[in-house]
Design brief:
By secondary structure, the chain is an alpha/beta fold. It is built from five helices and eight strands, in the order ααβββββαββαβα. The strands form two sheets. It has a four-stranded antiparallel β-sheet. Strands 6-5-7-8 form a four-stranded parallel β-sheet, sandwiched between helices. A hairpin with a 5-residue loop joins β3 and β4. The longest helix has 14 residues. The mean pLDDT is 93.
């Protein structure tokens, strides 16, 4: 049974709202909050539902449906002719969308291979991985894969991610 993005429920997350991500962006990605978790569905490039990641709204626990295969989150919304930011987490990518720039998430620094979907991008790619060792390694691998000539990177201070920068 395949479900398209617009067939999924949407229920505004107060947790994401408290992190600076408004209702319009949440609805675009079919975010919903339930049982002290915020669910962030993952779709393929054509908008078909694959699985949902969740994050606790009361702690730092993350949940992924069993059998889920990491892919590039947000790819179904990307216009390949416009600049796109690349983040590790969905919340950081949502923060870019809130600020008016399209973004995708690799769902972890260890999933740079998913960026192969951006090889057809004809614009600038902003690498906005977390400012830690894993993020810097991911940034370096991503710029080699996608072409250093079109990659720029966002240098944030240690301990500050994209969502924290949005909130600040």
């Amino acid at each position: 049974l395949s479900m398209l993005k617009n067939q999924l429920p949407f229920r505004k997350s107060k947790y994401l709202e408290s992190r600076g991500i408004g209702e319009e962006v949440q609805e675009r990605f079919r975010i919903y909050e339930k049982d002290k978790k915020v669910y962030m569905p993952v779709f393929d490039k054509d908008g078909f539902y694959l699985y949902a990641n969740a994050r606790s709204t009361v702690g730092k626990n993350f949940y992924v449906e069993s059998g889920a295969k990491k892919t590039l989150w947000g790819i179904e919304e990307v216009d390949m002719s416009k600049p796109v930011a690349v983040c590790e987490s969905q919340i950081d990518a949502l923060s870019f969308w809130e600020a008016g720039m399209q973004a995708v998430a690799t769902l972890g620094a260890d999933n740079v291979r998913s960026l192969s979907m951006l090889k057809e991008c004809t614009s600038i790619i902003v690498l906005a991985f977390d400012p830690d060792d894993a993020g810097r390694r991911a940034r370096d691998r991503a710029s080699l894969m996608l072409g250093k000539f079109r990659c720029r990177w966002l240098d944030l201070p240690e301990g500050i991610d994209v969502n924290q920068a949005l909130q600040d």
